[in-house]
């Protein structure tokens, strides 16, 4: 009965048929809309955009590990240009590629931003485009570059305020004077001078299109880094200009066949001293801490770093001396990168990321380049994990011919030595023992240790080729130096970093590094690995790295790919490495071509030039440093004392029989199989 009454009420309850309902709803909606509109209007009116009229930059300063000022960063050398000095083709190119409805909207293009917001909500990362030129100007001047909905809404509000104060030509002028064009250059005039050695008002159609194309990704599309990508991007901009009727078909067809002609200007005045290190500081501040490049160059920041001038100068000076490096080709030099760490803190004491002409924030071969490490990975993927499982440097490993499910590695001399000690296998960098041992301890043991050292591995790297450093993606010299620091620092890994602290000009701390220490392995295992790697430098493949102080390290060479392109080349390699350390510093050196092909490959090894560069840099950097030994951990001493006591007790209580004496070097003979078993221990 009750249910039927409720159903009857619901069926007959139709408030929308009552005129009062609509009038009340209309009043409520009107009040709500008025409140929201009023609130938005008040908020937008309160926004401060006076910076548009006074865009003067404050230089940022860098300091070394002792607090000495070492370099100045600034974009205050911007030479502003007026709207009349900006060529029409430049304005049109920017509008065509960045904001085709620029003259139609009022700062926010609802059509495109709605489409972008829809995709943002779907993906959840708020990384879609849709920003107008006015919004980009607002973001660059007033907002951080975080990818949040709140930031996008603020960006829109600022854009509306800017459009209410400035006209379209003034906004475009401010945008082109503030935007980043790559290679450390902000503003159209600086970009024109850098890339074409001319003033902004002299830019041609092709040059304007090239500069407009840079804005999406200045590093990727830089004509100084990659002319082909820059050309493709430029021609895309020209196509958009044609489609939007800014140029005719004839102008388009004439422009796209023009080659990129650069007249590069100087960059030395921007970065000042220690440019290779400063470039990485900017990279770390942006990618790991979250600052924008505009904040770094214009924000008056005080950036305190881990740089040691003695180490950095030693590295830079060696990299300026070509005789330490393999001879390249006329069209391509052999590139290289080096990182030097204080393994006790993780502080990057010095680095050089390139050879030859500097490209501001170009490819950093010490921190960005990823290449296969070859045999330099063996201590991380095979020998250290074997030590963790109870193997010792004197354990016998197999150097017999090997074939495991079709995988048949060879030693570089194509010889076999039967059973040898693990120490001998490391010292001479034989391949077969490394693969055999990884198979014995289990691939996942090698994977686990490498991952603990923060060596990035893909799923397809979980194979026996891991023993020889055959990674699908590769590693950077920075990652290798950080990993080897585990051995140098008795099992503890400190996260590598260049920046210690960033403050405002007034001293307010904006960022303070937090120590990140991970115990990767035991002190005893780390020290045994150091003993083995010292032998590599004293009597093995790394002799060229030998210093007049305790030194340990490992060489690495990566064969050319087994493809048709390299068929018939018998003694060619793609990459060569040396990674090593002293009690004070750990360093990784890589060498190779940016683009390896049949005409550009190496015929050297990690024990040649990379080891020599390691030797030269560290000998100069540590010239005034007292010589000290590697620290011997207490647990290693205790373990050896216990082992000696056990061995002595065993000898006293169970002396060998006459028939067994040969196994202990006393003259008797043993059968072949038993002898092999003994060596397998």
From TrEMBL:
InterPro entries: Beta-lactam/transpept-like (IPR012338), Glyco_trans_51 (IPR001264), Glycosyltr_51/Transpeptidase (IPR050396), Lysozyme-like_dom_sf (IPR023346), PBP_transglycosylase (IPR036950), PCN-bd_Tpept (IPR001460). Coiled coil: none annotated. NCBIfam families: PBP_1a_fam. Pfam families: Transgly, Transpeptidase. It comes from the Bacteria. It catalyses: [GlcNAc-(1->4)-Mur2Ac(oyl-L-Ala-gamma-D-Glu-L-Lys-D-Ala-D-Ala)](n)-di-trans,octa-cis-undecaprenyl diphosphate + beta-D-GlcNAc-(1->4)-Mur2Ac(oyl-L-Ala-gamma-D-Glu-L-Lys-D-Ala-D-Ala)-di-trans,octa-cis-undecaprenyl diphosphate = [GlcNAc-(1->4)-Mur2Ac(oyl-L-Ala-gamma-D-Glu-L-Lys-D-Ala-D-Ala)](n+1)-di-trans,octa-cis-undecaprenyl diphosphate + di-trans,octa-cis-undecaprenyl diphosphate + H(+); Preferential cleavage: (Ac)2-L-Lys-D-Ala-|-D-Ala. Also transpeptidation of peptidyl-alanyl moieties that are N-acyl substituents of D-alanine. Residues 656-681 are annotated as: Disordered. Signal peptide: none annotated. Its EC number is 2.4.99.28, 3.4.16.4. Cell wall formation. Synthesis of cross-linked peptidoglycan from the lipid intermediates. The enzyme has a penicillin-insensitive transglycosylase N-terminal domain (formation of linear glycan strands) and a penicillin-sensitive transpeptidase C-terminal domain (cross-linking of the peptide subunits). This is Penicillin-binding protein 1A. It is a single-pass type II membrane protein. Keywords: Antibiotic resistance, Carboxypeptidase, Cell membrane, Cell shape, Cell wall biogenesis/degradation, Glycosyltransferase, Hydrolase, Membrane, Multifunctional enzyme, Peptidoglycan synthesis, Protease, Signal-anchor, Transferase, Transmembrane, Transmembrane helix. Its main location: membrane. The chain crosses the membrane at residues 21-44. PANTHER family: BINDING PROTEIN TRANSPEPTIDASE, PUTATIVE-RELATED (PTHR32282), PENICILLIN-BINDING PROTEIN 2A (PTHR32282:SF32). The keyword Protease applies. Residues 67-241 form the Glycosyl transferase family domain. Residues 671-681 have a biased composition (Basic and acidic residues). Residues 337-618 form the Penicillin-binding protein transpeptidase domain. It is found in: Cell membrane.
């Amino acid at each position: 009965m009750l249910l039927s009454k409720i159903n009857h009420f619901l069926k007959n309850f139709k408030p929308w048929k009552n005129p009062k309902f609509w009038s009340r709803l209309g009043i409520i909606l009107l009040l709500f809309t008025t409140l929201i509109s009023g609130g938005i209007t008040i908020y937008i009116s309160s926004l401060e955009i006076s910076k548009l009229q006074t865009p003067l930059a404050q230089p940022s300063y860098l300091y070394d590990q002792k607090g000495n000022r070492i370099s100045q960063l600034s974009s205050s050398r911007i030479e502003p240009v007026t709207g009349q000095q900006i060529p029409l083709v430049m304005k049109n190119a920017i509008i065509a590629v960045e904001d085709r409805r620029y003259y139609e909207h009022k700062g926010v293009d609802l059509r495109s931003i709605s489409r972008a917001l829809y995709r943002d909500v779907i993906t959840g990362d708020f990384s879609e485009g849709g920003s107008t030129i006015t919004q980009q100007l607002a973001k660059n001047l007033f907002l951080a570059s975080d990818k949040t909905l709140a930031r996008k809404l603020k960006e829109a509000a600022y854009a509306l305020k800017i459009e209410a104060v400035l006209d379209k030509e003034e906004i475009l002028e401010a945008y082109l004077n503030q935007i980043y064009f790559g290679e450390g250059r902000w503003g159209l005039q600086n970009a024109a001078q850098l890339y074409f050695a001319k003033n902004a008002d002299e830019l041609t159609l092709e040059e304007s299109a090239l500069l407009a194309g840079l804005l999406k990704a200045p590093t990727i599309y830089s004509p100084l880094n990659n002319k082909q990508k820059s050309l493709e991007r430029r021609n895309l901009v020209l196509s958009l200009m044609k489609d939007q009727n800014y140029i005719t078909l004839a102008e388009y067809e004439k422009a796209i066949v023009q080659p990129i002609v650069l007249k590069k200007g100087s960059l030395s005045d921007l970065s000042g001293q220690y440019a290779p290190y400063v470039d990485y500081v900017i990279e770390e501040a942006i990618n790991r801490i979250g600052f924008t490049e505009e904040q770094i160059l214009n924000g008056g920041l005080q950036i305190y770093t881990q740089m040691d001038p003695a180490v950095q100068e030693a590295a830079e000076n060696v990299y300026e001396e070509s005789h330490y490096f393999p001879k390249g080709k006329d069209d391509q030099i052999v590139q290289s990168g080096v990182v030097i760490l204080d393994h006790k803190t993780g502080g990057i004491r010095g680095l050089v990321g390139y050879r030859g002409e500097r490209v501001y924030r170009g490819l950093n071969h010490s921190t960005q380049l990823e290449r296969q490490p070859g045999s330099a990975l063996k201590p991380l993927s095979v020998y250290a994990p074997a030590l963790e499982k109870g193997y010792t440097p004197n354990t016998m490993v197999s150097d017999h011919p090997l074939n495991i499910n079709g995988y048949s590695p060879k030693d570089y001399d194509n010889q076999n030595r039967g059973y040898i000690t693990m120490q001998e296998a490391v010292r001479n960098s034989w391949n077969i023992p490394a693969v055999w041992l990884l198979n014995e301890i289990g691939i996942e043991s090698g994977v686990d240790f490498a991952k603990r050292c923060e060596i990035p591995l893909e799923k397809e790297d979980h194979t026996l080729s891991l023993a020889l450093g055959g990674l699908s993606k590769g590693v950077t010299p920075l990652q290798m130096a950080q990993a080897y620091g585990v051995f140098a620092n008795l099992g503890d890994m400190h996260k590598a970093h260049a920046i210690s602290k960033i403050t405002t000009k007034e001293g307010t701390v904006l960022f303070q590094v937090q120590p990140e220490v991970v115990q990767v392995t035991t002190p005893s295992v780390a020290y045994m690995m150091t003993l083995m790697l010292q032998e590599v430098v004293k009597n093995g493949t790394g002799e060229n790295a030998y210093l007049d102080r305790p030194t340990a390290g490992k060489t690495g060479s990566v064969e050319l790919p087994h493809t048709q392109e390299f068929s018939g080349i018998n003694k060619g390699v793609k990459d060569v490495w040396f990674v090593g350390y002293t009690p004070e510093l750990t360093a990784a050196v890589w060498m190779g071509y940016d683009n390896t092909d049949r005409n550009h490959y190496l015929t050297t090894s990690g024990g040649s030039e990379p080891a020599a560069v390691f030797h030269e840099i560290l000998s100069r950097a540590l010239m005034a440093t007292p010589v000290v030994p590697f620290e011997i951990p207490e647990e290693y001493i205790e373990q050896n004392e216990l082992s000696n006591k056990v061995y002595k007790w065993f000898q006293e209580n169970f002396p060998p029989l006459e028939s067994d004496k040969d196994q202990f070097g006393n003259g008797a003979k043993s059968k072949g199989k038993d002898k092999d078993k003994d060596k397998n221990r």
